[in-house]
Each structure stands twice: as C-alpha cells, then as structure tokens.
Design a protein that fits this description.
Strand content: 35-45%
Order of helices and strands: EEHEEEEEEEEEE
Radius of gyration: 15 Å
Oligomer: single chain
C-alpha cells in the first residue's frame, strides 16, 4: 500500500541511466511545485540485479563516491531520506553504460507514509546509516 510495484528494467549495449535522485528533492517540491504523492516521498530504494552484463553497467553514487558492480542476484538497499525526513543528497546515482552483454535490474520503492515505526527518526540532519558494504550478496548504502 505504501510502496510502488516492482519495476524491471533491461539495459542493452550502451544502455545507461543519467544521474538522478529517487525521491523528490526540496527543489522539486518548492521550485518546480511537484510535491511527493499522497503516500509521501520515497523513503527507501531496493535494487536487485537480476543479471550481470559481461562488461560495464555499474551503479555509481556520484556524490558519495561509491561504485557498485552489478552481480547477479545481489541487491542494494538505501534510504533516500535522512532520519529527519529531508532528502539525502548523497543518494544521487546513475547507471553506467553497459559495454558488453545486457543488464537486468528490478527496483522497489518504499514511501514514507506508514513507515514511522520501522525507522527511528532524528532531528540531526547529518545522521546517516553506515556506508555501502556487501553482506552475503546484498549491498547496503
């Protein structure tokens, strides 16, 4: 109810995705007048690599300096919002071009509404979870 349906994407040769945020930023909300949906902003992203290309296709977090190589059946989870509810600008990410083969991924986005008991909120803007690590095939950002 407070998550979007999964989205499956295929990237062929030279397929890529430009740098972007998964959540609405303060610029989107206040300048472009595009508020989050009625179920709130996207609080978290879960990205699963369904296949891995022969070459290329990394996911990079441009502001955090993190590069994740696509590994089949691995997954990445990150929070798009800081614990105080503001956008985390370190989550800006992109899909690098596929150089050989194809890349298959599945995205699942979770919205802030109805998540108030699953993640501790905080007033400190700078508080973040630990940086990316690989745990049994699952990256966490």
């Amino acid at each position: 109810e407070y998550a979007e349906l999964q989205q499956v994407n295929n990237y062929g040769m030279a397929g890529h995705y430009e740098p972007h945020y998964d959540m609405k930023t303060l610029h989107d909300i206040h300048v472009q007048n595009t508020p989050p949906s009625e179920i709130g902003n996207r609080v978290a992203t879960f990205l699963t690599y369904l296949g891995e290309p022969v070459g290329g296709g990394a996911t990079i977090f441009t502001e955090a300096g993190v590069r994740l190589s696509p590994i089949k059946n691995a997954a990445v989870f990150w929070y798009n919002l800081l614990p105080n509810g503001n956008p985390d600008l370190l989550t800006r990410h992109a899909g690098c071009p596929v150089l050989a083969g194809t890349k298959w991924v599945m995205n699942k986005w979770f919205h802030i509404n109805d998540q108030m008991f699953t993640r501790q909120c905080a007033l400190e803007e700078a508080r973040r979870e630990k940086p990316a690590k690989l745990y049994d095939g699952c990256y966490t950002i």
